[in-house]
Task: inverse folding
C-alpha cells in the first residue's frame, strides 16, 4: 500500500510513501522501488491521496 | 642480482596462468577486476552484524536474500568465521526446515550494475568468459548450485560446485562462457544477477547451458532449506573476466564502503552526542527544510527512510523543535530534501541545525538494483 505526499510549499506531488515501512520513494524510473510501485498501479491499485498542505 | 630483459613471458602451456611471485598477471589481474562488491562480507551498514530472518531483505551490503519456501525459516548474519586472509563471512542457519515446492526458493544474490559488466560484451558474438570464485563452508556435503541471469530474467545459466567435507572452508571456482545472445544491460540497471541457491524445485535447471527458464540453482543440487540446523557460509566472492580465478581482490575498507554507498548509505547517531546531518531553514512554524548531500553519488534517486519521524528535529535560536512527520523529496543521485513537518512554534525564517535526536536513530537511502 502506498500514499502520495505533497510538497508543503507548493502542494505538488513530492514523493510516494510506502506504508509498510514508511519509506519515501522518488518519481525516478531507475529507482527499483518506484518500478515496483508502477507495477502495483498497473495491477489496478490506487494510492491513498496526499494529506492537505498545512 | 640478475636482471632479465625480455619482451614477453609466456605460459608454457599456451594458456594464461604464468605466475610471478604467485600472482598471475593476466589481462584480468588488475584493480577493479572483481565485479562483486563486498565479496568479503566486511560491510554491513544495515544490520551491524545482527541477524536477519526476513524474505526479500538485505543482510550484509549488496547481498540480497529471498526465502519464500513455506515452513522454512532461517537466520542470516555477518560472521567472524572466515578462511585465512578474510575477517568475515555471511552465515546462513536453517532454523525450521521445509522442502521447496512450486515456484519458491531460498537464495542469495548480488545484482551487478550494467556499467560494471558492459565490457564483458554479453549478448554479442564477442562475449567474454567469466570466472566466479569463492570460499564456502557448509554442514552439508554434496553438489550445490547457483545461477547467473540477465536483468530481464530470460537468459539463465546454472552452475554447480561440490562441497567435499562438512564444516570445512573450501575454495571453489566456476568458469562460464559468456552469453552471445539475449539482452544484457550496460547502464545503471542490473547488468548481471549472480545467485547462490539454497533451495528450489521449479527454479532450477540443468547446469552448464544457457537457456531462458528462470533458475537460482542447478537441478538436483542440495536444498539446504530442507535440513533443520544446516549451515552455509560464504566469503571471498569474486567474478572476473577470463577463464582463470585470480587471488581475491582485497580493496581498502574505505574503497569498499564507498562502492557499497552507491547503492545504500546510512547515517546513524551513536553515543550521546546529537548528530547534525545538515543545515535547515524554518519555512513556517510547522515546517523546516534541509538539503542532504549523499556520501557518494548514488545509482539512482534513492528511496529515503528514517528510524522514526520524531528522531529528527531542528535546533534554532537555542530551542529544539522535534518533527512529528518527516519525509524525503526532490531526490536526485547527489542530494535529497529532508522535510520536517508538525513542528510546534518554530521561528519562521530562522536557520538551524537538523539533527538526529535519539541514540541509534538513523536516516538511510537506498538505490539498490
Result:
Amino acid at each position: 500500500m502506498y500514499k502520495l505526499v505533497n510538497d508543503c510549499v507548493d502542494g505538488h506531488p513530492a514523493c510516494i510513501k510506502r506504508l509498510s515501512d514508511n519509506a519515501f520513494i522518488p518519481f525516478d524510473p531507475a529507482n527499483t522501488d518506484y518500478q515496483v510501485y508502477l507495477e502495483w498501479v498497473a495491477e489496478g491499485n490506487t494510492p491513498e491521496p496526499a494529506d492537505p498542505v498545512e | 642480482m640478475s636482471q632479465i630483459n625480455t619482451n614477453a613471458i609466456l605460459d608454457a602451456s599456451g594458456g594464461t596462468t604464468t605466475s610471478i611471485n604467485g600472482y598471475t598477471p593476466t589481462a584480468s589481474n588488475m584493480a577493479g577486476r572483481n565485479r562483486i562488491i563486498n565479496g568479503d562480507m566486511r560491510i554491513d551498514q544495515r544490520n551491524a552484524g545482527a541477524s536477519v530472518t526476513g524474505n526479500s531483505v538485505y543482510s550484509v551490503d549488496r547481498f540480497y536474500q529471498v526465502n519464500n519456501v513455506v515452513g522454512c525459516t532461517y537466520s542470516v548474519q555477518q560472521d567472524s568465521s572466515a578462511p585465512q586472509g578474510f575477517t568475515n563471512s555471511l552465515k546462513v542457519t536453517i532454523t525450521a526446515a521445509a522442502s521447496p515446492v512450486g515456484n519458491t526458493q531460498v537464495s542469495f544474490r548480488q545484482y551487478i550494475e550494467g556499467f560494471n559488466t558492459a565490457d564483458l560484451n554479453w549478448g554479442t558474438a564477442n562475449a567474454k568468459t567469466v570466472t566466479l570464485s569463492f570460499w564456502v563452508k557448509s554442514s552439508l556435503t554434496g553438489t550445490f548450485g547457483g545461477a547467473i541471469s540477465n536483468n530481464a530474467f530470460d537468459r539463465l545459466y546454472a552452475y554447480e560446485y561440490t562441497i567435499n567435507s562438512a564444516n570445512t572452508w573450501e575454495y571453489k571456482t566456476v568458469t562460464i562462457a559468456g552469453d552471445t545472445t539475449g539482452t544484457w544491460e550496460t547502464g545503471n540497471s542490473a547488468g548481471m544477477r549472480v545467485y547462490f541457491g539454497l533451495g528450489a524445485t521449479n527454479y532450477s535447471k540443468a547446469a552448464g547451458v544457457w537457456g531462458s527458464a528462470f533458475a537460482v540453482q542447478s537441478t538436483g543440487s542440495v536444498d539446504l532449506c530442507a535440513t533443520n540446523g544446516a549451515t552455509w557460509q560464504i566469503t571471498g566472492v569474486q567474478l572476473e573476466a577470463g577463464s582463470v580465478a585470480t587471488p581475491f581482490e582485497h580493496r581498502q575498507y574505505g574503497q569498499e564502503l564507498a562502492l557499497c554507498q552507491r547503492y545504500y548509505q546510512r547515517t546513524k547517531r551513536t553515543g550521546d552526542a546529537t548528530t547534525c546531518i545538515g543545515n535547515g531553514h524554518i519555512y513556517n512554524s510547522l515546517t523546516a527544510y534541509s538539503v542532504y548531500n549523499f556520501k557518494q553519488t548514488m545509482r539512482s534517486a534513492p528511496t529515503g527512510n528514517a528510524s522514526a519521524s520524531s528522531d529528527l528535529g531542528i535546533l534554532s535560536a537555542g530551542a529544539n523543535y522535534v518533527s512529528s512527520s518527516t519525509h524525503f523529496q526532490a531526490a536526485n543521485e547527489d542530494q535529497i530534501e529532508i522535510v520536517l513537518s508538525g513542528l510546534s512554534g518554530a521561528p519562521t525564517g530562522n536557520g538551524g541545525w537538523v539533527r538526529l535526536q535519539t541514540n541509534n536513530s538513523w536516516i538511510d537511502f537506498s538505490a539498490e538494483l
